[in-house]
Input
Amino acid sequence: MLAIHDDIQEILVKDYNPFNPPLRDLQELDFYGFISFHPVHWNAVQDLIVQNGGFHTIKLFGAPWMLSYISLKYASLLCTKPAFPVVDAEGKSCGSLSPLRILRIPAEPCHKTCSGGFRQLQTLQIKWTIVRTFLDLSEFAQAIRIFVKNLKQNMSDGPAVDRFGDTRNEVQHRMLCLPKPDDPLGFIFNTCDMPGKQIARELDVYRVCWLAARIFTTHVTFPLPCLRPFRENLLPQLQGTISKILDHQANDNGSNESDVLEILLWCTMIGGIAAEDGAPARRLWYAFQLKRLYLSLNIQSWTRMQELMRSFAWVDVGCDNAGYSLWMEAQRVEDYRAPLEEPCVVEIA
Output
């Protein structure tokens, strides 16, 4: 395909991932993640498909799967909606089933056994379809934890491996189809009939979840190999939004709503881990905010921190070591104040 080109001047180099994601080579994502795109060629491919009747008219076996898979990588780096729906090798869709149901894993979703996690977004008038998508991410992270416990046995089951890869693609597709924080408010909220101050606050909470989830998915659940420019773009935006929410809470007569603080704690943990190989001042900022948040929530042990992280989205083998390192760093931080960075917008092809 012309859209996938081998330009020696644009070879992507694998960089350091502060997380340690499992299943990097599932469906050869570690290979396809290196493929660069010529946007003109990619647009031409989409135009040709439309002119010939659309995506679902493609008959060549495996071609719809390949196109949808490659479009996921492209959209993941650019934070855009994928050009094509997710299908398996036979061109079939899994519909709207939840990850554990798709995978036929007879486990109760963790998000149903706790009152916290992403379910807390429901208190903010955020549409259920959006909350459901975040819960799908939580559920898929749980599925990874289950899958890797018997990794050798599970990887020997070809159909199960294919189904797991397709489920990963489906969850990533759903996350990429979430409205952006700058989209019209009606795309995000059940009602916009709220005071302006309340809308601004709740939009910031959605924004911080959206940014942290972008980092988490591309580094852990759909791990791409070339992400340093991506982190350099998103981490200052996440930092600025966390700071804004904390400032609003401090100005609201010391408001200390635990649901928002727990959401911020997960987002700060994800951002802090991702900041490991960046500017030391940024990493220190995240460590200090993490400490402020876990003290406000009276979290006194790493075990309790792990429990709370799993109520959102957390893969032990991929996050524990890096998370514990940040936790210990936060223990040592006394105080930190520094001006927020402006996001460096980096275009990634």
Remarks:
- The radius of gyration is 20 Å.
